[in-house]
Specification:
With about 400 residues, the chain is mainly alpha-helical. The chain folds into 2 domains: about 160 residues, no CATH class; about 140 residues, no CATH class. The chain contains 17 helices and 7 strands. The protein has a 3-stranded antiparallel β-sheet. A two-stranded parallel ribbon has the order 1-2. Strands 3-4 form a two-stranded antiparallel ribbon. Strand 5 and strand 6 form a beta hairpin. The radius of gyration is 22 Å and the shape is elongated. It starts with about 40 loop residues before the first helix and ends in a 14-residue tail after the last helix.
């Protein structure tokens, strides 16, 4: 039998307000606030830290304090501080070297003015956070398509699915559906197209419900294509791609992306989740992310605002991923990579806690909508943001070992 008994939660749980929130700093509310950095790193991580890490963090807090009145500098200081906190929280998955490298970079800049912290935050925001932020274009093609074959048994559907290459969006989507029991991985609701193709799923779908699903990528296809040296279309974006790899290498995390490239790039199942259209959209905008619980392939569902989940179909905030196709192992249908999910969760936390989410939304929207610079000067903020990004790019490769470097004023 193809479909093993589902591990999805029972679907008779109370209102969403009764669900436990994702583990965040104790002052966090159901709506993610823009929080000042904790004055002491120990306040957030709840145990002692080494002197180097403490010194680096304290210098970031001081930079935040001295930026009073400048919202952009405050936000960039918080990007660095909350990145340190998040990398420490996810160190079991991302290793201690990531948080150590952030503190090393900050201490190398110790002789520089506090503006070095703001530029470091700008570098992380434009090169790390933006690499995981998806484009605002149409969502990837859903599971609905024409000329679909109909199957009598799950085994027939599995054979047809595994016959695909897995190297394009459509075949990756079908493999992910087979792996995930033809359901959204977070809500447990069945994929409507799969139910139409496989009527044996109909009785369960009548009880649990159906949705239209999408193939949701953790690291976007465009980013992976840009960092792939064998991709012939990468020339126009190679500078940005190099910047993404530079910041990941500076955190000793470049191998996470390179490992994905060695497989099937963005279409490899380790980079793919099956999600409903609604949840996919939340994920792409950093409004939803997954944080590991410490158990294999088990995650807390975290959101920037609990209200996002009211009509989402999610009835529990903890999910466990596994291969739902019987007699098929994780090597054939890999589960989402915990390291990629942890890296995404790190970025989502930093974006929401630092205030970068609103900042990026405002300037990205303005830049997308603006065809020409306004004569009244209202576009100056957007232009300044682009100039800052270019300025950082022009000097970020001058240090050895991919460490960020700021030139003397």
């Amino acid at each position: 039998m193809l479909i093993a008994p589902p591990c999805y939660p029972h679907h008779h749980i109370g209102a969403i307000s009764s669900l436990l929130p994702c583990l965040l700093p104790s002052c966090a509310s159901p709506t993610m606030p823009f929080l000042p950095l904790p004055p002491l790193l120990e306040t957030s991580i709840r145990h002692s830290v080494n002197p180097q890490l403490k010194s680096a963090y304290n210098s970031v807090v001081e930079a935040e304090r001295r930026a009073a009145g400048n919202d952009t500098d405050i936000m960039h200081a918080r990007v660095v501080g909350y990145l340190m906190i998040a990398l420490h929280d996810f160190r079991e998955t991302l290793k201690d070297s990531a948080i150590e490298r952030v503190s090393e970079v900050r201490l190398l800049l110790d002789a520089k003015p506090v503006t070095a912290v703001y530029e470091l935050g700008l570098w992380y925001r434009t090169r790390l956070l933006r690499a995981f932020q998806k484009s605002k274009g149409p969502l990837s093609p859903s599971s609905q398509h024409s000329s679909r074959p109909s199957f009598t048994t799950p085994e027939d559907m599995l054979k047809d699915t595994l016959a695909g290459s897995g190297k394009d969006h459509r075949s990756a989507k079908r493999r992910a559906l087979a792996r995930d029991g033809f359901r959204c991985m977070l809500s447990g609701k069945f994929d409507g197209t799969s139910v139409e193709d496989l009527p044996i799923l109909e009785p369960q779908a009548q009880t649990i419900g159906m949705v239209t699903t999408n193939c949701c990528q953790i690291l976007s296809e465009s980013t992976l294509q840009d960092v792939d040296p064998e991709n012939p279309d990468r020339d126009d974006k190679r500078e940005y791609a190099a910047a993404v790899l530079a910041v990941l290498d500076s955190l000793r995390l470049g191998a996470v992306v390179r490992d994905a490239l060695k497989q099937n790039g963005a279409h490899h199942l380790s980079n793919v989740l099956t999600m409903s259209l609604q949840l996919h959209d939340l994920f792409d905008k950093f409004n939803l992310w997954l944080e590991g619980t410490g158990r294999p392939h088990e995650y807390k569902i975290c959101v920037s605002n609990d209200a996002w989940l009211v009509d989402s179909g999610i009835t529990t905030r903890t999910v466990r991923f596994r291969v739902h196709a019987e007699d098929v192992d994780e090597e054939t249908l890999p589960l989402p990579d915990p390291a990629l999910l942890a890296l995404y969760a790190t970025c989502a936390r930093v974006v929401n806690m630092s205030g970068a989410a609103e900042y990026m939304h405002i300037y990205d929207s303005d830049a997308d909508d603006m065809q020409v610079l306004a004569e009244n000067g209202s576009s100056n903020g957007v232009l300044l943001e682009k100039m800052r990004s270019v300025a950082v790019t022009s000097r970020e490769f001058s240090c050895q070992d991919s460490l960020y470097c700021v030139t003397s004023d």
